[in-house]
User: What shape does this take?
Amino acid sequence: MKIKNMKDLDKVKEIGMKSLFPKGPQIRISMSTCGLALGADDLFQKITREKDKKGIKISLHQTGCSGFCNLEPMAIVKLPGKPALLYTQVTVENVEQIIRDIKKKKIPQKGLFCMIGSDSAAAKPDPVLNAVPDYRDASPFKGQHRMLLGNCGIIDPLSVSEYVAMAGYSGLFKALYQMRPEEVIKEVVESGLRGRGGAWFPTGFKWDMASKSSGDEKFVICNADEGDPGAYKDRTIMEGNPFKLFEGIVLAGYAIGSHHGIIYLREEYHHTFGFLSNAIEIAKRFGLLGKNILGSGFNFALNIVRGGGSYVCGEETALMDSLEGEVGDPRLRPPFPIEKGLWARPTIVNNVETLSNVPLIIQNGGKWYKNIGTEKAKGTKILSVIGNVKHPGLYEIPLGTNLKQVIFEMAGGPVNGKSIKAVQVGSPFGTFIPADKLNVSLDPESLREIGSMIGSGVIVALDQDACIVDILHHLLTFFVEESCGKCVPCREGVSRMEELMIEIYNGRAGMNELDIINELGETARDFSLCALGGGAPAPILNGIKDFKKDFEAHIKTGKCLRFS
Amino acid sequence: MEKERIEKIVNKHRNEKSAILAILHEVQAEDNQLNAESLKYIALLLGVPYANVFGLATFYSAFNTEKRGKTLVRACDGISCHINGAEEVIKVLKSKLNIELGETTWDESFGLEKVRCLGLCSISPNVSFNDKTYSNLNKEKILEILQKVTGDSK
Amino acid sequence: MIQMTLNDKEIEASENSTILEVARKNGIDIPTLCYHEALEPFGVCRLCIVEVGGALRKGIRISCIQNVVDGLIVDTESERVKRNRRFLFELLLARSPDSKELIDLAAKHGVFESRFYEADSDDNCVRCGLCVRVCRDKIGAYALCFAHRGYDRMVTTDFELLSEYCIGCGTCAQICPTGAIKMKDEEGERIIYTKSVVIGKFELETCGKCGMPYASRKYLDFVKRNSDDAMAVSVERNLCPTCARRTGAINLVGQMTL
Assistant: This one.
């Protein structure tokens, strides 16, 4: 059905509520890329077979990823009158017991992790659940502020009605029926939202300029070329709550006067491609994309384009070249995309996470949004905390949260009683913050003060066994492989840096070469055409400066601390 | 690939030049390669110079101008996989398949590639075999998977 | 006109011109490889870096792209510029140690050695893209492209084979700043080639008057197709540039090439 007015939206909402709070028992299986990698497919099939065999009616749904892939496969079991319960690392072997329990109206115990929505009206307290925490109190969810990820892993990502039941599309409805485009922009400006792809450019300002650029056509590009190794927040949003992203994209289109959006998705996300294409079709059927959106008369078409496996294409001008069917080389600026972007038309390029914030801002107001975060950086940021910590995963935190708290409290600190050596914030371009300096606020300004950056939010924790030379070597290889080769400092300079680093790694070079790496780094940093060559030297120069011991070990003995 | 197949794919994209990446993806998915013949025909249909198409096909790492293995093994070497031992996993893959990164086995059954991040960083290291991904790998696990996949019990 | 300072000298310059254009007009030598008057700026060799201040935020600019503004202060030979330009020259020399043109240019700017010489490198190409761009944007032949990426990026033809698109005009060889593309006319045959690929190979048409081999058929057809009637007529007459000039015909070749 097409949603054409408030009545329709309410009707869909009602369907969604029924689906989220069913009368009978329900199981939800997390079936994102990560769940599938860990056997969610088999689990789903096994549950289907088992419930049919036992002849009980259980409604079975899919959900997305909650950001903690290491807890997959996850399942949510909802029994009538009970809160929804989250189970982790559910295996095919558990299934028979789960189904037996459900049949007896008993709460399955194995793998029970936490409750979701224990305060909802439909749920009655249960003595069995006394010791089970609510998910807001359960590590690794504890301390998070899950505005964007809140629905991920809970709602069926392909169910429009469940998203609507979670207040989805109320922002777009409000905008299309009650707000003029400039009012939408005003709210976004007011909110203080800044680009989450790594550049932290004020979103409202970009939209304002694009709305004032003239062109027969304008474009909204959603940058889903999530290329920073270690990042998977965009994938999680796209697979966990795609309609929120679509809502944000349509809002952007309405605000700047564009009727055409494109999601540029990185090639490596195979499953996501099919999944999103499917979600777009569903949104069209509900009248949430295409002609006459929500019955308002506003038209907006959304396409999805797969990249070709090139990191540089995450850079907005290279991305546009790639969309035009060219090799993804960064363009010279000016002109800026807001004046002359895709096919020389005014274009805004925004990251998945950025756009997903917009429905919340329109729904609750810019004033509400700017209460979250620091003075200059508003809202939340999804961090991808990886490396040597107990609970690697996605942490959505208010900007300004302390890094130490994230590493040691939320992510559980190092494993096996080891100690943290350093943390690279904003990988791959961020610097390594030594263990004794982790007491820093996670926001672009505070990090810039100590010479680092938050980037797209990849946080790599390294413990005492890690070797910085090894990590720098790894990073340099990445930069060299992903350089487009257009400008000399990046193509030739960074390649030489890598070469020299390999020599140092193998103990065949000394301090002299280290000095040359430093100098090359400065040239690449200051003279490269785009942010890849310009950004690559930062972690290298910083690593050399702050972790001399690691270098000495390699230079003197040719041995890597990592393997000692 | 036969010309009719290519025509069908190009037509599906309404002969639009900007859809060339999608067209290359689809032709490669069917033919497991983008050989000179196919690329030239695509160029011809789209009215794009050969040189442009060749530039594209060699720039993007997802495209292969030579025949690639029926099963494409993509070993992730993102930062998280690296920290958690991707090197070991890749070493096993290379030695068991007896090929280097970027190569294809003699019988064209397997191709081996390195990718930078499959986006499964909290269950690393990861390796995908076509569309099936395996996670939390180590030396033993990848050996087991290889045996299962190759049906080889050596 | 605007007022600006160029290497401590007050000068007047016309707006809408780049720093590079203004500097060259004032007799200041800024090295470039990827720049050519006839083409859009590409900004990749980075040799033309200058330091600016005054009306623009203090820092480094690429002079082939940056336009001059009133009150601009430019230093084309600051310590920072010289140090980094040296690095860029060294990086280029490392890969193209045999290019006489590059060696001369580097020497002119005080760089005689590289710390990064690559073993056995005989690649004269510096990936400036002049050839690819002139072939595409000026000639319209599309015979050349950049293939591969990063350090492996290279100028080549489609599929690294003799190009079906090349018309044998030789502009690429003429515009190449480092002698990486060569053109040879021998025994009535023209070959255009790099160290790794033969771009074009043509039998040359002989001049209807003096009998000298002078241009490929494909090129003459191309000129005929892409020019007005007067030109087409003189192509019909089949005259080499010298004879054409002598007979007062329009100097076709001179106009088509750069």
Notes: Residues 224 and 233 of chain C are 8 Å apart (CA to CA).
